[in-house]
Design goal:
Layout: E1 3-4, E2 13-19, E3 28-29, E4 32-36, E5 39-40, E6 46-50, E7 68-71, E8 75-79, E9 86-89, E10 96-101, E11 104-110, H1 112-122, E12 126-130, E13 137-138, E14 148-149, E15 157-161, H2 162-169, E16 185-188, E17 198-203, E18 206-215, H3 233-239, E19 247-254, E20 263-266, E21 271-276
Parallel strand pairs: 15-16
Antiparallel strand pairs: 1-21, 2-3, 2-16, 4-5, 4-20, 6-12, 7-8, 8-9, 10-11, 11-12, 13-14, 15-19, 17-18, 17-21, 18-19
Length: 285
C-alpha cells in the first residue's frame, strides 16, 4: 500500500521546464510556465497531420527533430534547415478540419500558411492543425484519472530525473540530453529511478499524482540531426525491460478536481515527495 513519507534528505529541485508546442517538433526551454486543465500553456496545441488527418510524429518522420520552435509575442517562430522562417499564430483563424487521433475523432483548425511549409520540408502532403480551447479531449476510458489533454499521446505532464538520465548516459555510446527524452519537468537531486515509486508529489505549490510510467518508443533514438539510431532504446531494453515494455520517466496529472487544475511552475521550485508505493508505477496500454 502507498504510504505517506517525508521529503527525502536529498534536495529535489525542478531544474528544467520544457514545452513542445508542435507535437514531435523541437522543444522550448522555459524559466517558468502557467498550467491549466490540459497541461503547460501551449504544450502540444499544434500537430502535423497527413492527408487523412492522422498525427505525424518522429516515428514516421524523424526530420521533425530538427524543426526548431520558439515563442514570440503572439506566434510561434518555426525554423528548419534550408527553409524560410514560418510564423504560426497562437490563435489561427483557419477552416475546421477533422483529425483522426489514433481512432479518436477530434476537430482542429487548419494553419493554412504552414501546409506548404511542412509539405515541402517533409516531402509529402502534410498540414498543421491547432487545437482550440473549445475542443475537449480526455484520456481513454481505461485510465482511472480521465484528465483532459491536448495532442499529447496520453498524459498531460511528463517527468524525468537527472540522476536516471545520468545512469543511461553512462551506458550508451552517445550522450542523450534531457530534451531528447521529451519531458515537461526535469528534476535534479536524489537517486536514479527513485521516481519509479513516487505516487504523489508537490512541485512548488502544484500537487501532482504520478499515474503511469512512460513506456518508451523509437522517438528517443532520433539523433539531433534527425536520423534514426539504436540508442538509447537498445540500452534501456537491456537494463529496464518490464512486462515487454521499456519504462523511463513518469507521467503526471494534477492532484486537484478538474475545475481547479491551474497553477504556475518555475525552475528552482522544490519537489516534495508526498507518497510512495512499494512497486513501480504501472504502464497502461
Amino acid at each position: 500500500m502507498p504510504a505517506l513519507i517525508p521529503t527525502p534528505l536529498d534536495r529535489l529541485t525542478l531544474s528544467a521546464l520544457y514545452i513542445y508546442p508542435i507535437k514531435s517538433a523541437g522543444g522550448v526551454s522555459l524559466p517558468a510556465s502557467d498550467l491549466g486543465p490540459t497541461g503547460l500553456t501551449h504544450d502540444r496545441r499544434w500537430m502535423v497531420v497527413d492527408a487523412a488527418g492522422r498525427p505525424v510524429t518522429q516515428r514516421e518522420q524523424p526530420r521533425l527533430k530538427v524543426v526548431e520552435v520558439t515563442l514570440g509575442m503572439d506566434s510561434l517562430q518555426v525554423n528548419a534547415p534550408q527553409m524560410p522562417a514560418l510564423q504560426v499564430p497562437f490563435a489561427p483563424q483557419g477552416e475546421a478540419r477533422a483529425v483522426d487521433m489514433w481512432g479518436q475523432p477530434l476537430r482542429g483548425v487548419c494553419v493554412e500558411a504552414a501546409a506548404n511549409w511542412f509539405s515541402t520540408f517533409l516531402d509529402g502532403d502534410f498540414g498543421l492543425v491547432w487545437m482550440p480551447a473549445d475542443v475537449e479531449r480526455f484520456q481513454p476510458d481505461g485510465r482511472p484519472y480521465r484528465s483532459q489533454i491536448s495532442f499529447v499521446d496520453g498524459n498531460p505532464f511528463h517527468l524525468i530525473t537527472e540522476a536516471s538520465l545520468a545512469d543511461i548516459d553512462a551506458q550508451v555510446s552517445r550522450e542523450v540530453g534531457a530534451a531528447e527524452m521529451r519531458p515537461n519537468l526535469v528534476i535534479s537531486g536524489g537517486r536514479a529511478y527513485q521516481e519509479d515509486f513516487w505516487r504523489r508529489i508537490r512541485v512548488g505549490e502544484v500537487a501532482f499524482e504520478v499515474v503511469e510510467s512512460c513506456a518508451r518508443c523509437a522517438v528517443i533514438n532520433v539523433t539531433a540531426s534527425g536520423e534514426r539510431s539504436a540508442e538509447p532504446l537498445r540500452t534501456l531494453a537491456r537494463t529496464r525491460l518490464r512486462n515487454q515494455a521499456v519504462p523511463f520517466g513518469q507521467h503526471l496529472v494534477q492532484d486537484a478536481p478538474p475545475a481547479q487544475r491551474f497553477g504556475h511552475l518555475r525552475v528552482g521550485d522544490v519537489l516534495e515527495v508526498l507518497e510512495v508505493g512499494s512497486t513501480p508505477t504501472p504502464m497502461y496500454e
